[in-house]
Amino acid sequence: MNKLFVIAMVSSVIVGCTTTKQVVVPKTLLIKPPESLYNCPGVKKPNPDTMTNRQLADYIARLYKARNTCAFNIDAIKEFVERSEVQLKK
Fold first, then answer.
1. What global pTM score does this model have?
2. How far is CA 71 from the centre of its chain?
């Protein structure tokens, strides 16, 4: 009984080694977001020594607007990448 088991195991190993497997090479694609999404506007900083309250308020408003533009564009890039990953998985 043990000899029969050993013979069966050896023959299955030999058969397993002689079969050829098909190699699948994955295709890699580069997906880049549009250049228009890489827009984070800079804000010129006023001189802190001579800055008035009005200039400070304007500076804060420009910073807030620039931050919103940047955050919107970063969110758009993330969404673009997520949609691209879904398309690659298809």
1. 0.51
2. 16
Q: Which residues contact 77 (CB under 8 A, 6 or more apart)?
A: 33, 37, 38
**Token representation of residue 4:** 């029969």
Tell me the C-alpha distance between 77 and 19, whole Å.
Answer: 46
* Contact status, residue 1 vs residue 48, Cβ threshold 8 Å: no
pLDDT tens digits, 36-46: 777 788 888 88
Do residues 33 and 81 touch, judged by C-beta distance below 8 A? yes
Q: How far apart are CA 22 and CA 81, in angstroms?
A: 31
Beta strands in 1-90 (DSSP E): none
Centre a 10 Å sphere on the Cβ of residue 43 and count the other Cβ atoms it contains: 15
Helix H segments across 28-52? Answer: none
Nearest residue to 48 via CA among 39, 38, 59, 37: 59
